[in-house]
From TrEMBL:
Protein name listed in UniProt: VOC family protein
Cited Pfam families: Glyoxalase
Annotated VOC domain residues: 13-144
Amino acid sequence: MTQSKTQRPTIGGIHHFSPTVTDVEASADWYQRVFGLERVPAPFPHYGSEDSGYAILLTDPNSDLAIGLHHHDANKGEQFDETRTGLDHLALSVPNRAALEAWVTWLDELGIPHAGITDMQEPFEYSVLVFRDPDNIQLELFAMAG
């Protein structure tokens, strides 16, 4: 492989996550409740297909994370399935295992089912907390060991 003379441009992190959901209002309520997100008042039209859908944008006031929940008129309402081509899951980083423990308490208080914290040693040390949104999209909170 030849070495490039140009340096790769930087990536600043994830800007937003945009799933298509079956009920945009129910999902917006759920994501606001779980993650403390704030709703941008106006819906966003789908660029190039403004007549067939829109998105509700939620933002985190403490980070750059945004979640755009998409409604498409053609959506037949089927549940998400990570075994099909497309998204498998979304993992959000938390600073440490103690933060995961705080998330367990938070999700329990909200009545959100989760798998509990799993500590892994391979292929490297990390801890993860897995749960699902109303459309069955797997969400993970992920903490590196250390």
